[in-house]
Amino acid sequence: MAIDFREFDKDSSDDSETDFNDENDIDIDGIDSENNDEPDKEPGSGSSNIEDDQDEDEDEVVKAIKAEKSKPRDHPPAIICEDFIVDISFSPVKNLIALANIMGDVLLYEYNNEETKLLNTLELHVKACRDVEFNEEGDIMFTAGKDKAIIATDVETGKLKQCYENAHEEPVYSLHCLGSNKFVTGDDGGIVKLWDLRKSDPVFSIKIGEEYVSDMITNDAQKYLVCAGGDGVLTSIDLKGSKIYTTSEEYDAELTCMGLFRSDTKLLVGSSKGKLYLFNWKEFGLHSDEYMGQKHSLQCMVPVTQNIVVTSGEDGVLRATHMFPQRQLGIVGQHNLPVECLDISYDGQFIASSSHNNDVKFWNISYFETIDSIIDVNHKQNKKKDMSNNLPSSSVKNASDFFSGLV
Prior knowledge:
Elements: H1 47-56, H2 60-69, E1 79-80, E2 85-90, E3 96-101, E4 105-111, E5 116-123, E6 129-134, E7 140-145, E8 150-154, E9 160-164, E10 172-177, E11 182-187, E12 191-196, E13 204-207, E14 213-217, E15 224-229, E16 234-238, E17 243-247, E18 255-261, E19 266-271, E20 275-280, E21 289-292, E22 298-303, E23 308-313, E24 317-323, E25 326-334, E26 339-344, E27 350-355, E28 359-364, H3 368-377, H4 383-386, H5 400-403
Helix pairs in contact: 2-3
Pfam family, one: WDR55
Organism: Parnassius apollo (Apollo butterfly)
WD repeats: 332-373
């Protein structure tokens, strides 16, 4: 029996038509999906009974994916920009997304299933705006730029609340909010600084390496800040003690992105060689497990449930992976060029992705909760069937294209 997922295909992003050669369609059980004739069988071979058993034993996850593909996928239309988008960030409280571009501007868009509407264009930095984040209440937007400036802006009025000029000696690479008024920044030279909007100077400054600080993350307790570096080292900082807590072994690739899972007890770290490293929280010196995510560089990731992560990067494909147990789920979406960043909406309904094509696409991922619960109940796995499925948000017609990027 061949499963052809083209009949279930529901595109979750507008201009994402991708042409694939029909000759490459996966044939699950060795039978052409376009040919309903039974192959010749040796008498008494019993192959028909085997196929019947496989049909009856079809994976529950496959059934869930197929059921979702038969439903229309609602999503906002794509946003096409004139300038390269460096970072994106969803508001934590409403249907608002911020796009930071290479010119130093931030574009604020309101979105719904019918349209994306430009509300405001804020000219904040004189060079590329590298990171944009909202505080917990969504009323303040923090930005950091290549011009070494850090700016806090009132989201409602667009007025500046605070501007730290020359906040770092090197261009600022990453920014992470810690609450309503506190945030941390990391620069190209390995310096991390903690800031409080109520103060004019940083609370502390620590040098953690010689290369850029690619990403930073903490849990709800905010005792430790974990920093990924371009030098392949994972460094944790004791925020209350204002000192380095641990430094990991040096990995053979740049550490590019991070995500928390399992009620913040597990830390997943992506690398420029496509590997994923899993750490137990507070045990940042050495990973507890590792996975080969794909052959291409991983640029970004976003956790979508306690167990499922979506990653993307150099090949422009958004892939979903269930981590506990480890299992490839399929393609969430795709761009024609490398993906720069990902974010998830405040209600968990959409993922947004931006690529080197100056576009931002939205992918409806509401089906993940159903898939996650099924896998939690039933850990039975059939890799052959996994490889045949693209997720409901994807327009890829050939399932093999998902696995072509995996090792």
